[in-house]
Structure formats: structure tokens, C-alpha cells
Amino acid sequence: MSKTVLITGASGFIGSHLVKRCLKDGYRVKALVRKGNSCIEPLRTSGVEVVTGDVRDADAVDTAVQGCDLVLHAAALTSDWGPMQDFIDINVGGTRNVCESSLRHGVGRLVHISSFECFDHHLLGRIDEETPCMPRRQSYPDTKIGGSNEVWAAMKRGLSASILYPVWVYGPGDRTLFPLLADSIRKRQMFYWSRNSPISLVYIDNLVELILLAATRPEADGEAFMACDGEPITFEEVCQRVAKAIGSPSPSLYLPFGLVRNLAWMMETAYRIFGSETRPLLTRQAVDVLASRALADVSKSRKMLGWQSLVPQDEGIRRTLDWLVTVDPSLWKMK
Fold it and tell me: Residue limits of the NAD-dependent epimerase/dehydratase domain (predicted)?
């Protein structure tokens, strides 16, 4: 009999790719999806059992987890803007609900998709699973740390779980990195604040492979893993590839990091004063992460689980850009 896997965040970028892979691998797939989401019917048509609800609703989570062998927790509020309470309720409270239900129903393995944003990477040269997490009074990083802490606490109570810390995840369906860069470049709003900064990427198919290894390999129980393809590329080179694909000039303006970070602070302050729900052009979190020079060490993932990046970076970027140019430019800025 095939195993049953629950995927939270199944309508999102990572979750949707997990659904496709798990169906392909013969799993019985359940998905927790918010009521009214347009992906519900397509998921059901593909053979997924959809439980309508929200990770903030403990009862809905419990219904979804019941009867599952594996839980892949990809649901999160992934942004650098929004009410702090929403981040707390979804990224911390939602993860707590998933952990409690997984313990209650004896789930065989929970895989929690956290983030390399848990680490203060823009001040470091290298990060691995032993690097201390560092709260920095920013909504997304701090609540991803909080969510990961919920999983570590549940492990101490007997939950079989693994935590993954992906770097920038990209690929067809990306809603953050490539679309937002394309939108800024097309509008001539893109500039740099750090020269030759390496950017750490992981292609979505490679990440999905690691998630499933963490879900099924006995040695992954109780462990954390960095997720990064590890091929060198700079932020400028990524922007140049995007600009060429969309037929726009490459950005060429450089401004000092300190000036840009202060501009971001002023924009954030102004947007909060006026109660704006839209994201500012710049936030301090975005400035920090895109100036990061930290390299993610994935030797543990490769040695312990035998994980390999099967899609090379150049091919992954090509596939992503081929998809991006088919999307209406008015939809590039989705966050």
C-alpha cells in the first residue's frame, strides 16, 4: 500500500512542485489549502485529497494530518512586508499546530522547510547547520526561527522530523526572485548596492529531491540540512541574464550599501505611517539578503543523504527564464 503524504502550502511555489513529484512517485497525496483558493479544483482533478483550511486553524490541521505517514510542511508567509502578527500566526503558530497534530497521530516523519534567512548571513562568509540562528527584528527571518524552534521542541517530545534551510529557491512558478527582478529591471528601478556579491541558489527540482530524501531516509531523523546547489554566480550575473531574457538594458548603477539601507528604512517608515499594504520598493531585509556574501555549506546533505543537484544551475536558470517570458509582465510583481 502506498504511503500517504500531507503537503501544506500546496498552492505555493515549493508546495506545488512537491505535489507533482509525490504524485509521480506514487504517494497518496493530501493537501491543506485555504478555502476559496483557485488551485483546489485542479488539485482534486489531479487526484489529490484536498482538506480546506488554514495552518492557523488547529482543527483543520488535525483533520489533514490524520492518517498521514509523512508531512511536508511548506506553508509559510514568505515576504519582507506585512503585519508582524500574520507572520507569527502562520510561521510560528501554524508550525506549532502541524507539530502537535503530527505527534498526536504518530506521523512517521515531518519535514519542515525553514529558510537560510534564519542565519544573519549577510555578516558571515560561510553558513552551515551549526551556525547559530540570529533574530534581527525582521518579520520573516525571526518567525522562521520561531517555527524551526517549534520543530526542535517537538523532536524532544518524540517527533521524527527534519529541518531544511534552503537558500534562494528558483524555477518555473517562482513568485519571488526572478519575477521581482524582472519587474524592477523592466521599469528601470533596479540598481546595485554591493559589487560582485555571490548569490546562493537552489533549483526547485533539486530542493524537492532533498526534501524527499529527508522525509524517507532513516539517518535524516532529528537532523537539519542546508539546501544550496553551490555553483558560483553573482547577483549582477543573475540580473544580466534576466535583463537579456526580457529585452531590457542591464542595471549599471551602484550606490553605497549604507545609503541604500537607510533609504529602505525611510521607505518602510513612510509606508507604515500611511498604513500601506503594498510592499515598498526597498526593505532592509531585501537589502541585506541581496548583499550577502555568505556561502552555504551543503556537505552534510551530500554526505549523509547522498543528495546531488541533478539540474545544473545554467540549465535551471534557462528553464526559469523560458517560463518567465511566457508570463504577463503585469503579473511579475506578485508580492
Answer: 5-223
